[in-house]
Amino acid sequence: MLNIEYIGLSEISGPLVILDGVRGAGYEELVSLSGPFGERTGRVIAIEGDRVVIQVFEGTAGISLTDTRTRLSGAPMMMELGPDMLGRVFDGAGRVADGLGEIRVEARADINGSAINPVRREYPRDFIETGISAIDVCSTLIRGQKLPIFSGSGLPHNALAVQIARQAAKQRSGGGKASGGKDSNGKTGNGTSTVGSDGSNAGQTAIVFAAMGVKADVADYFRRSFEESGASSRVMMLCNLASDPIVERIVTPRCALTAAEYLAFTLGYDVLVIMTDMTSYAEALREVSSSKGEIPGRRGFPGYMYSDLASIYERAGRIKGRPGSVTQLPILTMPNDDITHPVPDLTGYITEGQIVLDRSLERAGIYPPVSVLASLSRLMKDGIGEKYTRADHAAVSGQLYAACAKVQDARSLASVVGESELSAVDQAYLRFGEAFERRFLSQPRAESRTIAESLDLAWELLALLPRSELDRIDPKLVEEKLGRQ
Questions:
Q1: Cα–Cα distance between 157 and 298 in angstroms, integer?
Q2: Separation of alpha carbons 10 and 28, rounded Å
Q3: pTM score of the predicted model
Q4: How far, in Å, CA of 265 to CA of 260, rounded?
Q5: pLDDT, tens only, 172-221
């Protein structure tokens, strides 16, 4: 790489600068710009012959075409890593932002990461207890999975994210049951950690929380909630505010995942990465794409958004022979609650299910307003059962899904003919539906239920239905749990 400094710019377009006559530039290469405006950094995002397009993280305000000095580093953007990252707050580009001094650096890594070798990728297993009955029982989160939350403007996804993070930070994963029990090696999973080849962090949980395009009061809410719950020592926060440069928003999830991979595969933590809001990320991508003059795709988003989102989501998983895991819980708001919008639509193709928040449940005063029928966890079957949760988990979950579907049918029929004209079975389903929403779905924000408590509550609600309707559960198990009729 030639150590050349270029003086002057060819063009400035929004958050981008264009430089001609560049030799030896590389895609994603880190660039420094200096001048009367001070020092700024950027990265190469497009190369056309000897012309390069550079994203400027701090924005282009004040930059001049004539006296800007540009120097290419010859390397991609790197992030400084160390065990001291936990308990600290960083900006969207991975720089310390809490005023507590720099971290102790033990490694540096390319924020773009590297693909996990499919041969070395381990299948996600082991249940993560979120403390939310609707998620733990019906759409179970599995360690190493990517499971997005589809929300809408004004819905309580921020409160739900904080609640899940607080609960996950309390856990230690021993590969067995979350509430007592033992794994296949006879090790307990409710407070006893295993020691991996990396040292003492195996079995401990860490949270990487990335906020993109949020308001200052929302960022303060996240920070304050973690501090008040005592979980802040297990949480690394990256905050890109709405007032921050939009280009920085594009690197925020990559910085978060780079930190998560270091904590997981080097230090041995089981890392839960919560990213909110991926819609803000996609809109930043659209704005930069427009500045580059690219041909837009659906609703103005770039045609490569699918592969771009995949480069983020596919960084979740576990690696054979390596300690730790990376689990992703991205949150995205659906404009106008439209699940066919390009961002949730493409996300659903890449990830392994989704948790959908329902506005009608929220209006009814139910928190968290999780729509059971619209939610799905495709890896759930491999992380539940006697080894991980409880032997009756799969049967109870299947029966709840079937009952919720019949509740919907009964309510539709009642709206036409009236509730008094329904059969006794349909009326039982209406009573079940009301109790299910008020007792099972709804729970105080400070309440965290164990999986055993959630399953026991599900059995109490299923007892409201005629035994003949419990056709998804073995009759012997029904008799054992509910007794003879």
A1: 26
A2: 20
A3: 0.88
A4: 8
A5: 655 445 444 444 333 333 333 333 444 457 678 999 999 999 988 988 99
